Amino acid sequence: MAQYTRVSGSVGLITLQNPPVNALSAAVRQGIVDTVKRALGDPKVKSVVICGQNGIFCGGADIKEFGTNMSGPPLVPMIHAIEAANKPVVAAIEGSALGGGLELALGCHYRIAHSKARLGLPEVSLGLLPAAGGTQRLPRLIGVPAALDLITTGRHVTAAEALQLGVVDRVAEHSTVDAAVKFALSVAAKSLDARRISTYPCPRPSDFDALFEGAMQKVRQSARGAIAPVACVQAVRAAATRPYLQGMEREKELMATLFTSGQARALQYCFFAQRAVSKWNMPNGARWDTSKPRPVHKAAVIGLGTMGRGIAVALAQTGMSVVAVETQEKQLMEAKQAVSGMLERGAKRRGLTPAALHKISYSHDIQAVADVDLVIEAVFEDMALKKKVFQQLSAVCKPGTFLCTNTSALDVDHLASQTRNPELVVGMHFFAPAHVMKLLEVVYGPQSSPQAVATAMQLGKKMGKVSVAVGNCRGFVGNRMLKPYIEQAFFLLEEGATPELVDRALEEFGFPMGVFRMSDLSGLDVGWRVRKGDGLVESGSASGQPTRLREGRRYSPLGDLLCEQGRFGQKTGRGWYQYDKPGSRVARSDPWFHSFLEEYRARHGLVARRIDHQEVLERCLYVLINEGFRILEDGIAAGPEDIDIIYVFGYGWPRHRGGPMFYAGMVGLATVLERLEHYRQAHPDVPYLQPCSLLRRLVASGSPPVHRWREVIKKLHSQL
Ligand SMILES: CC/C=C/CC(=O)SCCNC(=O)CCNC(=O)[C@H](O)C(C)(C)COP(=O)(O)OP(=O)(O)OC[C@H]1O[C@@H](n2cnc3c(N)ncnc32)[C@H](O)[C@@H]1OP(=O)(O)O
């Protein structure tokens, strides 16, 4: 809806009203059409201001309407009518002007933004393009290079940057509506000839062809198969090469392809899934809206290895006081330097002074954490060591301190049992580098209090993370699903694939790195240590031939054999690939590994066969998805959205494919089930290929869309 009033005698004030973000729903669009008509027809009104209720101008088109039978007046003629008005129309931008919201403002003759407002055309992140004239007006207003940047990245700009770019005419420090009304009074009698952006010529840069070729190359590289960024470049190119109305036709044509695409559905699903995971609930009924977090003013990090350093940086950047503890003097000194460097670089990037530097105090004594509100333990991944740390923390910390562990797989309940107050213990599983990666798994056990979960979730949000609450099990959600995925990749090598082939298939699917390049980056020794701990590793050099079965299950010792040779990946300059030197990042095919693989196959009587990309994807991805269904069945994740967000934000799953569970729905659950059954028959010694009963049940109930899986899961749990 839109409210109409007349203010200051001659200004028609139109207020968009659709909480929480004044999205342009059918009712709002109708409201704008009606109120604009009223203002233009009122002889007492000499100029018009459009603003939004509750301090936010407009969050764009109503995304919930996409995929429905959209009714109500369309945006394009509505904005044209505003631009064509014979009375000045001023947009008063507070909070956000995004997508269709900014396009509406670009149709106005003037734009005034509050200094804290943010503006942008984020349609690309929803698999769309700004199709209400955004791709045609913005380049005319601010030039092609700047428009290309904003439209292809979807980034939000501050009011200051918007002013510098020429997106807005003025920035207001106090009431934007008051400033806009005052301004509207002052321009009431002025000619509008030079204020209609669609009439501007689009400036044609001298390096036109190189600019567009470069832009196209850039989006193709970074988009990894996403179609919207490519369409955005094409639409802006049309602005620079065609008259306005023809450009609008091209914009419409490109949007038509995007609007109904699977990628747009996937990206819009991700938008809502990201918001859904913040509304967490636990199997015991505790929920986000009934559990109050406790404020954290001072936090501590124990252990300043790579993870601890990143966590300390992320904590300090929230502005809170941080105590960083490392018992080894040398490591402490190195960490101090590294953390300061990270904070300084971070502040420089954001154009700030590194105030967070002074928020961190360092100590080698665990007693230093006595007065903190929350501790994050990030010592070496070793249960005995972590147990000891938790016993100490329980004795040292003031009553009520939350004790969190950054373990990536160990049993959080077991650590909780080492403390006097297990209800205060949760996992906070960060991803490396912890100050950069957006994902945080908040792991609760049966004893974790709702307040502990709420506090960890809120702290994660404060640290800029996308936090997902998950239950406690080996590897939690992300790493638990990764295990069968990696295992399949190893098996594919045994059967005839190469690391290059497997990685290419996964990278063409959209992962930034295939499984082997990723393994080289994170270090082969990490998994080796875990497998050793699990008693899976048999020494190959001693027996000459480690077996390929463990307790009746197929096992590939390939990773163990490479580790025995000291091939730990990038850090040693050798892994699944070779590198120019230790630490170098460019993976090159390694003839040594290829002959090693051939010898290995010969030794085990394995005959290499031709493996294609489809098999790589089906085996690696469907087995990971199958484990996702088991996780849902076990109640470790509350819904498919939680799993998808973990994979999109923590594991490089291509966002335009919506996350593994959404992808399964797109492929068709019956197809996933059939292919798993097929591979299970071919590999009866791989239990992970056994389709999970939830998947069978979903297929039996007609493969409902992903947003209806929770009903089936609920029914399943109530029957258990
Ligand atoms: C015809 C096709 C035309 C397309 C052009 C477009 O305009 S496409 C839409 C472009 N707009 C966007 O992409 C903006 C999306 N929204 C945001 O980025 C943020 O919500 C915000 C506006 C910056 C506000 O952020 P904040 O953190 O304050 O709130 P939330 O993100 O949690 O959102 C609050 C609730 O509002 C819902 N919501 C937000 N934007 C929209 C929208 N455009 N349409 C519908 N719903 C929207 C969001 O889902 C939250 O809902 P809850 O139910 O409370 O979870």
TrEMBL record:
<dbReference type="InterPro" id="IPR006180">
    <property type="entry name" value="3-OHacyl-CoA_DH_CS"/>
</dbReference>
<keyword id="KW-0276">Fatty acid metabolism</keyword>
<dbReference type="GO" id="GO:0070403">
    <property type="term" value="F:NAD+ binding"/>
</dbReference>
<keyword id="KW-0413">Isomerase</keyword>
<dbReference type="InterPro" id="IPR006176">
    <property type="entry name" value="3-OHacyl-CoA_DH_NAD-bd"/>
</dbReference>
<dbReference type="InterPro" id="IPR001753">
    <property type="entry name" value="Enoyl-CoA_hydra/iso"/>
</dbReference>
<comment type="pathway">
    <text>Lipid metabolism; fatty acid beta-oxidation.</text>
</comment>
<dbReference type="Pfam" id="PF00725">
    <property type="entry name" value="3HCDH"/>
</dbReference>
<dbReference type="GO" id="GO:0004165">
    <property type="term" value="F:delta(3)-delta(2)-enoyl-CoA isomerase activity"/>
</dbReference>
<keyword id="KW-0511">Multifunctional enzyme</keyword>
<keyword id="KW-0443">Lipid metabolism</keyword>
<comment type="similarity">
    <text>In the N-terminal section; belongs to the enoyl-CoA hydratase/isomerase family.</text>
</comment>
<keyword id="KW-0560">Oxidoreductase</keyword>
<dbReference type="GO" id="GO:0005777">
    <property type="term" value="C:peroxisome"/>
</dbReference>
<dbReference type="InterPro" id="IPR018376">
    <property type="entry name" value="Enoyl-CoA_hyd/isom_CS"/>
</dbReference>
<feature type="domain" description="3-hydroxyacyl-CoA dehydrogenase C-terminal">
    <location>
        <begin position="475"/>
        <end position="579"/>
    </location>
</feature>
<dbReference type="Pfam" id="PF00378">
    <property type="entry name" value="ECH_1"/>
</dbReference>
<dbReference type="InterPro" id="IPR036291">
    <property type="entry name" value="NAD(P)-bd_dom_sf"/>
</dbReference>
<feature type="domain" description="3-hydroxyacyl-CoA dehydrogenase NAD binding">
    <location>
        <begin position="298"/>
        <end position="472"/>
    </location>
</feature>
<protein>
    <recommendedName>
        <fullName>Peroxisomal bifunctional enzyme</fullName>
        <ecNumber>1.1.1.35</ecNumber>
        <ecNumber>4.2.1.17</ecNumber>
        <ecNumber>5.3.3.8</ecNumber>
    </recommendedName>
</protein>
<dbReference type="InterPro" id="IPR029045">
    <property type="entry name" value="ClpP/crotonase-like_dom_sf"/>
</dbReference>
<feature type="domain" description="3-hydroxyacyl-CoA dehydrogenase C-terminal">
    <location>
        <begin position="616"/>
        <end position="703"/>
    </location>
</feature>
<dbReference type="GO" id="GO:0006635">
    <property type="term" value="P:fatty acid beta-oxidation"/>
</dbReference>
<keyword id="KW-0456">Lyase</keyword>
<dbReference type="InterPro" id="IPR006108">
    <property type="entry name" value="3HC_DH_C"/>
</dbReference>
<comment type="subunit">
    <text>Monomer.</text>
</comment>
<keyword id="KW-0576">Peroxisome</keyword>
<comment type="similarity">
    <text>In the C-terminal section; belongs to the 3-hydroxyacyl-CoA dehydrogenase family.</text>
</comment>
<keyword id="KW-0520">NAD</keyword>
<dbReference type="InterPro" id="IPR008927">
    <property type="entry name" value="6-PGluconate_DH-like_C_sf"/>
</dbReference>
<dbReference type="GO" id="GO:0004300">
    <property type="term" value="F:enoyl-CoA hydratase activity"/>
</dbReference>
<dbReference type="Pfam" id="PF02737">
    <property type="entry name" value="3HCDH_N"/>
</dbReference>
<dbReference type="GO" id="GO:0003857">
    <property type="term" value="F:(3S)-3-hydroxyacyl-CoA dehydrogenase (NAD+) activity"/>
</dbReference>
